[in-house]
TrEMBL record:
Keywords of this entry: Ligase
Family: Belongs to the ATP-dependent AMP-binding enzyme family.
Gene field: LOC104724160
CDD domains: 4CL (cd05904)
AMP-dependent synthetase/ligase domain: residues covered: 48-413
Source organism per UniProt: Camelina sativa
Domain of life: Eukaryota
Descriptive protein name: 4-coumarate--CoA ligase-like 8
Pfam families, alphabetized: AMP-binding, AMP-binding_C
InterPro entries: AMP-bd_C, AMP-bd_C_sf, AMP-binding_CS, AMP-dep_synth/lig_dom, ANL_N_sf
Classification lineage: Eukaryota, Viridiplantae, Streptophyta, Embryophyta, Tracheophyta
Length: 550
């Protein structure tokens, strides 16, 4: 027997766990990767065959682009930014734009040249964007006329997404092209695609920074090819279906999971420039969307407004909601299923650093495992490690999740923080356990656990209970400093309109359901809970706010 055959014989088929090396292996279809090392992710995606016709729909403009026109536009834009602008292999290019069908066109063009895409949140201030620019040193930026002023002090050449009535670059910025014109320009005939090795950097996406300063994550073409290959092995959606993307395209959840992966199957993606629940549901009705890509806060909003939604919109074609960005509790999932019994909720788990590798729910049967975020992605391996002792744990034991596989990023840009071990394991910082059937359950962020008199309290557990209260729209739990206990749980709560819910009632509601050390001991009411665009609660911001009130 070969080593791989011996290893396979030691793996428990029920949960994927191998006692010989304390590693969990995926139960999914094996991941097939191309053998060619000189391959860029754009070429890999464009080479996939399918029967799809419409690639993207811009819901705001009701503008459609076919797959054939998409790849024609990618080639033309690549030709222009190479020959006219001078972008070369290894150059960094910044994308600063609200959601638009032009973003994937531009990003695929840049990566086809071996240049590196970095994205910025359009809601960020000029100061915040300048920090990212200083760190990544982009040679070119793609943006809109409305956002161009945010990079006006950077001396970067820019490409605008469209022509304004009066063409004047804000702050003296050098406009070197209009994307709409580039998409129409006939290619020069000169070869622009230099050989790109799979080890070359393709993307420099900045992590959300929920527990600290945002850091650039280095992802290679090989990482992204592995991500896309996973969706060829495990189709994200049935071919020629239509799904609606409301998550931001500057984030890995939107750009990689919702856009690049779907191009391989012929699925149509409807893109909205921003999230507004009414616009989302109107688009679901208009385009007969079968799948919605959401973050947990949006799903909660759909629960709370279910009666109004059903009265105003026809969502009868909707069959699936795919939810990621933050854990979704069993209670919230069950409430959604009660309100929308014909729609299945499929959760998933991944990080910017894992490029889509993690876990997913891929069937109705799997979705009934409430509270789980799915089975390991094909090609992924996992370990559960005790954060205190470093010991590797087994089935149903809680510890930090470590991930390994071909999608795992190369590391952080200009940052010495070691999150990837010498053996290639990504330390996720998430506390979890994997059950008898191989399903992953996220307990909480390791760095955000509350230490009360030596006991560990998971904020996510208390938040899930709070969201089950009929008068609570949203909630976040943070550690509040205490001289005797060290820390204790404090809740920030957003009440439903006209609710008279008070601190005492919230404390009593939780105390009846948890052990004494988990009780919430302080409550503050707030208009909205601060979150990242991917739906993660910004507990660090609430901690700073709470401490400032001391």
């Amino acid at each position: 027997m070969t080593n791989s055959e011996i290893l396979s014989s030691l793996i428990n088929p029920k949960n994927g766990f191998c006692k010989a090396n304390s590693t969990f292996y995926s139960k999914r279809i094996p991941l097939a990767l191309p053998l060619n090392k000189s391959l860029d992710v754009t070429t890999f995606i464009s080479s996939q065959t399918h029967r799809g016709t419409t690639a993207f729909i811009d819901a705001r403009m009701d503008l459609r682009i076919s797959f054939s026109d998409l790849w024609r536009a990618v080639d033309r834009v690549a030709d222009c930014i190479h020959n006219d602008v001078g972008i070369r292999k290894g150059d960094v290019v910044l994308v600063l734009s609200p959601n638009s069908i032009t973003i994937p066109i531009f990003c695929l063009s840049v990566m086809s040249l071996g240049a590196i895409v970095t994205t910025a949140n359009p809601l960020n201030t000029a100061g915040e964007i300048s920090i990212q620019i200083a760190d990544s040193n982009p040679k070119l930026a793609f943006t809109t006329p409305e956002l161009a002023h945010k990079i006006s002090g950077s001396c970067i050449s820019i490409i605008l997404d469209r022509v304004e009535p009066i063409q004047r670059a804000p702050g003296g910025l050098k406009v070197v092209g209009i994307l709409g014109e580039m998409m129409k320009k006939e290619p020069s005939g000169q070869r622009v695609r230099n050989q790109v090795n799979k080890d070359y950097t393709a993307m420099l996406l900045y992590s959300s920074g929920t527990t600290g300063r945002s850091k650039g994550v280095i992802s290679s073409h090989g990482n992204l090819i592995a991500h896309v290959a996973r969706y060829i092995a495990e189709p994200f959606e049935q071919p020629q279906q239509t799904f609606l993307c409301t998550v931001p395209l500057f984030h890995t959840f939107g750009l990689l999971n919702s856009v690049m992966a779907t191009l391989t199957s012929g699925t149509t993606v409807v893109i909205l420039p921003r999230f507004e629940l009414g616009e989302v549901l109107a688009a679901v009705e208009k385009y007969r969307a079968t799948t919605l890509i959401l973050v947990p806060p949006v799903l909660v909003a759909m629960i709370n407004k279910a009666d109004q939604i059903k009265a105003k919109y026809d969502a009868s074609f909707l069959r699936t909601v795919r939810c990621g960005g933050a854990p979704l509790s069993k209670e919230v999932t069950e409430r959604f299923m009660e309100k929308y019994p014909t729609v299945n909720v499929y959760q998933g788990y991944a990080l910017t650093e894992s490029n889509g590798a993690g876990t997913s729910i891929d069937s109705v049967e799997e979705s009934r495992r409430y509270g789980a975020v799915g089975l390991l992605s094909c090609g992924a391996e996992a370990r559960v490690v005790d954060p205190e002792t470093g010991l590797v744990m087994g089935v149903n034991q809680t510890g930090e999740l470590w991930l390994k596989g071909p999608s795992i990023a190369k590391g952080y840009f200009r940052n010495e923080e070691e999150i990837i071990t010498s053996e290639g394991w990504l330390k996720t910082g998430d506390l979890c356990y994997i059950d008898d059937d191989g399903f992953l359950f996220i307990v909480d962020r390791l760095k955000e656990l509350i230490k009360y008199n030596g006991f560990q309290v998971a904020p996510a557990e208390l938040e899930a209970l709070l969201l089950n209260h009929p008068d609570i729209l949203d909630a976040a739990v943070i550690p509040f400093p205490d001289k005797e206990a060290g820390q204790y749980p404090m809740a920030y709560v957003t009440r439903k309109p006209e609710s008279n819910l008070c601190e005492k009632k919230v404390i009593e509601f939780i105390s009846k359901q948890v052990a004494p050390y988990k009780k919430i001991r302080k409550v503050a009411f707030i208009d909205s809970i601060p979150k990242t665009p991917s739906g993660k609660t910004l507990r660090k911001d609430l901690v700073k706010y709470a401490i400032s009130k001391l």
